[in-house]
Design brief:
728 residues; alpha/beta; 39% helix
């Protein structure tokens, strides 16, 4: 079979061609060496799910199952070749692959027939009573008793034989053996020889080394294996024993990535895998594009940074290869684990607290257990890819338990975390049932960053206070707590203004609205109660009641992409929003006009820019928010094309700290203020809108995403002391 070919035009390869196959003996090989080396190999295989593990062992299936149940250092296999190559088992359900076994056992006279035929003539054969045997007959035999007469007797039975370690004599079907079994399995699954590494230590592994694949003979192997195995470049003989030798071979082949000095860790990869290929983000702005710029920064040395992320995938052996130019390390997460972790704990327990909506917190033990397990696995994943003394840059609340785990396991690492969300006041945070567990972990950070000084101050106050402050007033104790706070920085994230401007200028010329007083109000936001979409509709309803002359002139367009399938935290909001829109459109709509144009879908970014250019007013009403990059995009698009516009901005959005009163600030917690501020925007004359946008554009001074990322990585690397950065 031919090796896979790359697809240079897209940087994407089919999932099945990226698979690497490790076929390994157990006793003396995978199970050989000291415990630390076995643990290193186990961790390496866990962190590289593209490597398919196949056991090729003389053990029977019952023995292998017992081993998997009892030894935590044994990696999970995808396939099991047992009984010295007479059995092939699908490890997902421990079922025998009958079609392959039929080929391997063709001509087998049967266990009982073989044992009866040999026992009377060769009393020196010691039958292995304690070993479960299937498709073979196994004995103990001293070297001096391996005679030509015995070999001939086995051949007359129509069988083959294997002898290893000067002790084990196995009578097999004529077509069986570890090598033939590997060959049959590889043919069935279309594995090219160049993607297979076989590992062994005894003569019953010899047939595997004659397949033309890569091979490693570990340092503790019996001399006969090394003497009889092929002496070509593909078969590596190492002095390292057992698991250490296997690890050396994986490293030699380049199947294990070199640890990186900088690890960027986010719960999602910067690209999305769907429909058989990778897809880049729709927008040039946001967390993923900003962090991607750090990976592809030409000023950084090659392989200096790796992105550690989770990929929801129920078939680890089919994990796709990352696109060219994006150094990703993917941790596969089964969908059920992801659902408990992200859909449950992240969105139902933590998100309401972050959005200062503690009454919506829903906490369950199973979901939190999934969150803990995900964070622990992710910490191990990071550790496997971070070089000694390296820098780890975590992102967001999804990884809040990772700092504590890394501090315990990898104190050599410098660890920082950037919050892209707001951070609540301490009283709100403490309403989380797991508040102290999270707080203890966050204190283990070296550095933590925020978009706004308000969020930073809330975090500082949370970590500085005595959790039992009502009963403890020991100032020396509180001073000691303050001495161990992470450094804190405020670094607002901006947008790629040049990219937005270029797209805006490339779009078809915007046709001005007819001079009839009509106005388009726009919101672009994901479905989330924190964005206050229902409050918007209620404000519109109140405005129309108070100013019925706006009927037929005012249109509100809500572009509102739905959440990821499986997230139910926003179901109530969706139902209430759609019901409110239905009532409003029914009450005020006329033929050819409805007050609300609701578009619950994701759009390509150029189409979003079209909507920015068409909108007279951009309306942001978040109850709590990070920076809110859409407000910046609206300003950049309007400014680049010389068009007028008005920004109504929630005072709770991070951008409000930077734009101040240059925007029309609104209070989303006040229904009447929402109405009054929107009315003020609608009444703004065109010339004033032009001045308004120009003033806001002058305040778009945040650094480019690449500069922002470089600044933060440097801040984490320099965070060596216990004091905090000054907060403005």
């Amino acid at each position: 079979m031919a090796d896979e070919t790359s697809q240079a035009d897209t940087g994407v390869r089919p999932a099945h061609t990226h698979v690497k196959i490790l076929v390994t003996d157990l006793d003396g090989t995978l199970l050989g060496g000291d415990e630390d080396e076995r643990r290193r190999l186990r961790q390496a295989l866990h962190q590289h799910p593209e490597i398919t593990v196949v056991f090729a062992t003389g053990r029977g299936l019952p023995s292998v199952r017992t081993l998997l149940d009892r030894d935590p250092l044994v990696p999970s296999p995808r396939w099991i070749i047992a009984d010295v190559g007479a059995s092939v088992v699908d490890a997902t359900d421990m079922s025998h692959v009958d079609v392959l076994e039929a080929q391997l056992r063709a001509g087998w006279p049967g266990h009982d027939h073989v044992r009866t035929a040999l026992s009377g003539h060769f009393p020196q054969l010691g039958y292995q009573e304690e070993v479960a045997q299937d498709g073979r007959c196994s004995y103990y035999l001293s070297p001096q008793h391996l005679t030509e007469r015995l070999k001939s007797a086995v051949e007359e039975l129509g069988c083959s034989w294997s002898y290893s370690e000067d002790r084990f004599f196995d009578v097999l079907p004529p077509q069986a053996g570890k090598g033939p079994a590997v060959q049959q399995l590889a043919r069935k699954l279309q594995w090219p020889a160049s993607r297979i590494l076989v590992a062994g230590d005894s003569l019953n592994d010899l047939s595997m080394f004659r397949l033309g694949t890569h091979g490693v003979i570990v340092g503790n192997a019996e001399p006969g294996l090394s003497a009889q195995a092929p002496t070509n470049a593909r078969v590596h003989r190492t002095s390292r024993h057992g698991a250490s030798g296997v690890l050396a071979a994986l490293e030699r082949l380049g199947w294990l990535r070199t640890p990186s000095p900088v690890v960027i860790a986010y719960h999602r990869p910067p690209v999305q895998w769907s429909r058989g290929r990778w897809h880049r983000p729709l927008s040039p702005n946001g967390i993923l594009p900003a962090l991607t710029s750090a990976l592809t920064d030409e000023s950084a040395p090659a392989s200096a940074t790796v992105w550690a992320a989770a990929l929801v995938h129920d078939r680890p052996a089919s994990v796709p290869e990352p696109p060219a130019g994006l150094p990703m390390a993917l941790l596969t997460v089964p969908f059920q684990r992801w659902a408990g972790y992200f859909h449950g704990a992240c969105k139902e327990t933590l998100w309401p607290a972050l959005m200062s909506q503690p009454q919506l917190i829903r906490h369950t033990a199973p979901q939190w257990a999934a969150y803990e397990a995900f964070n622990e696995d992710f910490a191990h994943h990071i550790s496997a890819h971070a070089q000694h003394g390296g820098t780890v840059w975590l992102h967001d609340y999804n990884l809040w338990l990772v700092p504590g785990i890394l501090r315990s396991q990898r104190p050599d690492l410098r660890t920082g975390l950037f919050h892209h969300t707001p951070f609540p006041a301490p009283d709100t945070f403490r309403q989380l049932p797991v508040a102290e567990q999270l707080r203890d972990s966050l204190r283990k950070l070296d550095w933590v960053g925020f978009h706004t000084a308000t969020a930073a101050r809330n975090f500082q106050n949370l970590l500085s206070e005595d959790p039992d402050r009502a009963d403890h007033h020991d100032r020396s104790d509180q001073a000691d707590r303050a001495d161990h706070l992470p450094r804190i920085g405020v670094h607002p994230l901006g947008i790629d203004r040049r990219a937005v401007a270029a797209i805006a200028r490339s779009r078809p010329p915007h046709t001005p609205a007819p001079d009839d007083g009509s106005v388009l109000v726009l919101s672009v936001e994901r479905l989330d109660y924190a964005k206050a979409p229902v409050q918007k509709i209620c404000a519109l309803a109140a405005l129309l009641e108070q100013s019925p002359e706006l009927r037929g002139r005012l249109r509100f367009r809500l572009i509102c992409p739905p959440p990821e399938p499986g997230i139910h935290a926003y179901d109530t909001t969706r139902d209430a929003l759609e019901a409110a829109i239905g009532r409003l459109n029914s009450r005020w709509g006329t033929e050819g006009w409805s007050p609300v144009d609701y578009r619950p879908q994701s759009l390509p970014f150029p189409e979003v820019v079209d909507h920015y250019l068409a909108a007279d007013v951009f309306w942001v009403t978040s109850l709590a928010d990070g920076m809110n990059l859409t407000a910046q995009e609206y300003i950049a698009a309007k400014s680049a094309t010389g068009l007028a516009g008005t920004l109504v901005l929630s005072g709770q959005a991070g951008a409000a700290e930077h734009f101040g009163t240059a925007a029309l600030l609104t209070d989303p917690h006040s229904p009447q203020d929402l109405v009054d501020t929107l009315r003020q925007a609608l009444d703004m004359p065109p010339a004033q809108r032009q001045t308004h946008i120009a003033r806001l554009a002058a305040l778009l001074t945040t650094p480019s995403p690449a500069d922002w990322a470089r600044t933060i990585i440097a801040a984490i690397q320099q965070a060596g002391g216990p004091q905090q950065d000054a907060l403005g």
